[in-house]
Amino acid sequence: MTQEMDLFRLRWHYLSSEGRKVFLKSNNLSYTNISEDEMSRLLTLSNGLVDSTKEYYKIPFTEVFDLISRRRIFLHKGFGYITSQDIISVIATQYRSFMSKQLMLCSNLYSRIIEDERLKAILGNLNTVYTGKNYTVGSGNAHEIDIKQLGNIARRAFPPCMLSLYSTLTTQHHLKHFGRLQLVLFLKGIGVKMEDALFLYRSEFTKKMDPDKFDKEHSYNIRHSYGKEGKRTNYTPYACMKIVNLNGGGAGETHGCPFKTFESNQLNKFLTDNISNPEPGEVREIIELAKNKHYQICCTKYFQTKNPGVKLNSIIEHPNQYFELSYSDGNATSNKTGVKQEEKKPVPSS
């Protein structure tokens, strides 16, 4: 449900004013924006609390308790006057209520459904299923990564989860098992060669351990992640849902999603360190979203502050998606990034 609500809010954010009106009408939501005459009266009554440059909706106060508690609304004679930006709170509450009722209906059928072992297995793993683009090696990755420029690339284009892991690796010269795995699969997905990944991990780990110890305990796992050992499986980089559901945040553990595992003060430092000249309230907004468990919206907002030239049509769902989008406006050809775009070969017609 959290994922659905995040996606719903993001889609509303990108709707035009006319698009929002069409949505309300098509879904029989009888919220209409106030007339010019009512706006004039409201400006007089509100003593400057109402902004004449914004659109306002008039809604019964019983439907806007959430906004009342956050003092985001002007009340008058049993009605709340809210902006087109804040009306999403009202609509989202109704949407959540609708989904809850539908989930209740589904739960009543669940006992019969799980009698089928095939469906039981599918439903048991549904919360970590990712159906977006495949970021395994050989599935269309178009980047060549210069390992010597990886530090610059990380600061510019890594999502927070991978930037945090990379920073830990290069400052503490160690990562625990799940952190090593999460990062190496991401690196493989963006185009880092296995030899370069081994070089990176070896050069950092051996600042604290004997090279022979590294070769015995860690080299195999990196080669295995690249499908060069064991069953030679081409493992897929973790998607956001998988990362969010990892049990990170323990002593010495840095894997998982920072928006979930970081304390507020730690997250505030990370954001202020990595966002140059943020707009007023941007950092606070992301921290509030994290408190409310909207982790992927946090990542999407972070991306937007770092890449204002890239227009998003959906929420961030995968760390490798984040990386690719960072270069979607032509930055990939810059020598400063350390990323070189391969020439794409034409696909023969069938």
From TrEMBL:
CDD domains documented for this protein: PriL_PriS_Eukaryotic (cd07322)
Similarity comment text for this entry: Belongs to the eukaryotic-type primase large subunit family.
Ranges where the DNA primase large subunit C-terminal domain occurs: 153-323
Organism lineage: Eukaryota, Metazoa, Ecdysozoa, Arthropoda, Hexapoda
Cofactor: [4Fe-4S] cluster
Listed name of the protein: DNA primase large subunit
A single BP term in Gene Ontology: DNA replication initiation
One annotated GO molecular function: DNA binding
Alphabetic keyword roster: 4Fe-4S, DNA replication, DNA-binding, Iron, Iron-sulfur, Metal-binding, Primosome
